[in-house]
From TrEMBL:
Binding site for [2Fe-2S] cluster: 214, 219, 222, 234
Protein name: Dihydroorotate dehydrogenase B (NAD(+)), electron transfer subunit
Residues the entry annotates as binding FAD: 49-52, 71-72
Names of required cofactors: [2Fe-2S] cluster; FAD
CDD domains tied to this protein: DHOD_e_trans
Species of provenance: Clostridium gelidum
């Protein structure tokens, strides 16, 4: 399967918290909240990286990424007017045709990124909907000011106790207070959230994050287990019903 990459001009690339960068590039594609792009650097041999859409505004596309290894250290060197190769948007995204009713957005760490576009789209669809945000970080927080504009309440936890509740985001979540939970973050956190929702019979949708090489279903690197066998995170997801996927 041929995969076509295109060059996008970098508008900005700034560190917004320790080792967390916000990359803004030019792109005029139509996107859905919860979709992702495959990004790769020109002239280097690193594999492309799947990065969730954080926000789309006119012709500006925003990504958040964490600097964790050699490849992402190279991303951090990007500056205004540089170019990066990308393909997307990819994946199914959140189904905003559904009526989620009273909804909790639950995120952990860099999993907070796709919640911004999701909250914007939910708020645009229904100005009166109850949308609460629960988010957990290790120590420093980010993206909260941007999210506050679109949600009713924000509840924060940090491992160190520097902000909000000291502990895990699952300590402060009460899924029985909501009709639907939409979740993105570390798999161990999402498993706990799914189990909590199942116990209270609450709808739950998760955004799966897997390593992948192509983003279009050809490489089969990103398979995840479901009640119907293995599915491709990139093509069949990354958004799955929490009652369907096996975490």
């Amino acid at each position: 399967m041929a995969i076509t990459y295109r060059n996008a001009k970098v508008i900005s690339n700034e560190e917004i918290s320790k080792d967390i960068y916000k990359l803004v590039v030019e792109d005029d594609s139509e996107i859905k909240a919860g979709q992702f792009y495959m990004l790769k650097l020109n002239g280097v041999t690193f594999l492309p990286r799947p990065i969730s859409i954080c926000e789309k505004s006119e012709n500006k596309l925003t990504f958040l990424y964490a600097v964790m290894g050699t490849g992402t250290k190279e991303y951090a060197k990007l500056k205004e007017n540089d170019e990066i190769s990308l393909t997307g948007p990819l994946g199914n995204g959140f189904d905003l045709e559904k009526d989620y009713k009273k909804v909790a957005l639950v995120a952990g760490g860099i999993g907070t990124a796709p919640m911004l576009e999701l909250a914007k789209k939910l708020r645009k669809k229904n100005a009166n909907q109850i949308i609460d945000l629960y988010v957990g970080f290790r120590d420093e927080i980010y993206l909260i000011d941007e999210l506050k504009e679109y949600v009713n309440e924000v509840r924060i936890s940090t491992n160190t106790g520097k902000h909000g509740h000291k502990g895990f985001v699952t300590d402060i979540l009460k899924p029985e207070n909501y009709d639907t939970v939409l979740c993105c973050g570390p798999e161990i956190m999402m498993k706990k959230v799914v189990d909590m929702c199942k116990e209270k019979n609450v709808s739950i949708y998760v955004s799966m994050e897997k390593h992948m090489a192509c983003g279009v279903g050809a490489c089969l690197v990103c398979t995840c287990k479901t009640k119907e066998g293995n599915k491709r995170t990139c093509k069949d997801g990354p958004i799955f019903d929490g009652y369907y996927v096996e975490l």
